[in-house]
Amino acid sequence: MRLANKVAIVTGGGSGFGEGIARRFAAEGAAVVIGDLDQGAAERVAGEIAKAGGKAAAVTADVSNSSQMKALVQAAVGTYGGLDIMVNNAGMPQRNRPMLEVDEAAFDRLFAVNVKSIYLSAIHAVPEMRKRGGGTIVNIASTAGVRPRPGLVWYNGSKGAVITLTKAMAVELAPEQIRVNALNPVAGLTPMLKEFMGGEETDEMKAKFISTIPIGRFSTPQDIANAALYLASDEANFITGVCMEVDGGRCI
User: Fold this and answer.
1) In a domain? residue 205
2) pLDDT tens digit string along 201-216?
3) Active-site residue numbers?
């Protein structure tokens, strides 16, 4: 049990990569609080974890809202006694389109969910980690922040911000034994894929995308969960400020 006696929050844990991370963490002994806009999805995942013998709770949370992020953190503290691991997985895609066709409201929402959420997470989670004498934060960034592509300009920028924030947070929080790392997944077969492809997910478009990944397939929630597990575990206790590509070689 690599996360025995640990308490973890996973935002966006009701589907996709977040669901994979929540399930993996619970299987390794963590008590997991699943935050998601979709309460039903969060409850489904928490219920299935509990049926499998794990510990999980579901909380409705908009990661761009400070009071809801505070409530999410307090749910972990109130239910399980503290907080050791914060996984900032919740995010939103940008529909592939020319940069000038993205309106201001879409831009603001993109940065609120993908970037401001990291700030709010730190504001509310770091004080609880300090009470435990340390902790770990795993931010889910993207290959888009490393190898930006046309049609996703503002999404690329939001994930580039997550990468820079991860490194800066890691340096500042290291003396307090709070480690901060990020994962850069390549696209997977999640609800976001259709948006990245311009709103239409066809076999031809998927094949074209896969052709850019040397290993020859999309990422899976299990791929991302395995990497997140390592970074969150004590096995990585000398690793901070790392932004790890989980991308089948796409960023090479």
Assistant:
1) no
2) 788 888 888 999 999 9
3) 155
